[in-house]
Design a protein that fits this description.
CATH architecture of the largest domain: 2-Layer Sandwich
Structural class: alpha+beta
Mean pLDDT: 91
Low-confidence stretches: none
Shape: elongated
Number of domains: 2
Oligomer: single chain
Distance between the termini: 16 Å
Strand content: 15-25%
Length: about 120
């Protein structure tokens, strides 16, 4: 089950409000809050496409980057036993724990990107 839309390399989250009977979402992975909505799937998709186009135009008009900037570092919380095993594996491979985690994330992202056509 996919709870997201993709258009022009942008990802939009998808939610449903049963009380209002409306689909809604926001563009993910950007520094701004850009939302969209529709009362049907086709309306939601059209609204998402319009939101993306408007966002691209707005960024271009204001000479602003349309992508979120990432530092390249983040905290990861894992069970202590997994942490211990990962550290031991890194030692045995002769690499740092950071390098082990980086390699694992790169592998997963590459594999999933192929599967999801991202």
């Amino acid at each position: 089950m996919k709870d997201f839309l993709i258009y022009k390399d942008y990802i939009g989250s998808v939610h449903f409000n049963a009380e209002d009977e409306v689909f809604f979402g926001k563009i993910e992975g950007i520094d701004d809050l850009i939302s969209f909505e529709g009362t049907s799937v086709s309306e939601l998709k059209e609204s998402f496409h319009e939101a993306v186009e408007d966002y691209i135009a707005l960024c271009k008009e204001n000479n602003k980057s349309n992508e979120k900037s990432y530092k390249g570092s983040f905290n990861v919380r894992i069970p202590s036993e997994v942490h211990r095993k990962a550290k031991r594996l890194a030692i045995m491979k002769g690499i740092s724990l950071n390098q082990l985690i980086q390699h694992a994330v790169e592998e997963e992202v590459t594999r999933e990107s192929i599967n999801l056509d991202v």
